[in-house]
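Recall that a protein's primary structure is simply its ordered list of amino acids. Everything else, from secondary elements to tertiary packing, is in principle encoded there. The following example makes that idea concrete.
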Amino acid sequence: MLLTHIKTKALRFVEGLNLVDFSFALPYTWVLVEGSEGKALGVAMTLPEEIQRYTNSINKPSLRAFIERADSLNVIERTLGLAAINAVSQYHIDLSTAEWADVLDLLPENAGKIALIGNMPPLAKALHEKGAETFVFERNAKLWNRDTYSDALEYHLLPEMDAVIASASCLVNGTIDMLLDRARKARLFVLTGPTGQLLPEFLRGTKVTHLAAMKVIDTEKALLGLKLGSFRGFEEGNRKYVAKVR
């Protein structure tokens, strides 16, 4: 399981960091950490459709306790674990070689067949306007439209794709391993969205080629947006970037 691999690497980076605050919330679960270099905020998309009557087994919250449960079958523990890993990643990440760009900038002129994992309407619209042959897959039926495929078809169609742009929430819902396995032809595999704040080195050796995420520039503004349950309020405190994994 890729999350097990990621958490093992992340646990090596927690020394010297303290858990300041956290919340399992909508639209994002978040974890705030602090070290000698300051604070860092990590988030993970909260997926209401995945939540059942779980009991969180973490009695004494800590950065290490959260990360150790990042590969839990309990989606609440998994979401908090990934947010904690992202907080650690954002504290340590070096963006000097990253591009302050958008995921669309990664696509070549003739990208071939593109799979969009997760119905992200602005991105789907931009891809269609570029004339790209795009296949949009979505698990949550509430987000379907006439141009959306059920995620049940990913298994059959991904081997045909030349490029995959996947919402990093696939880490939260546990489908990342299947996506990487089935997208065997894809030359480009991008994890996108705020949940993709991982250190690139955590994914080296996998088929992931890029991370297109957000760096929190204004922690207070981003945190206020999160506490108010606002996508826009959170994103106003961020800046998009693209980092190569390999």
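The longest strand covers residues 28-35. The CA atoms of residues 166 and 207 lie 12 Å apart.
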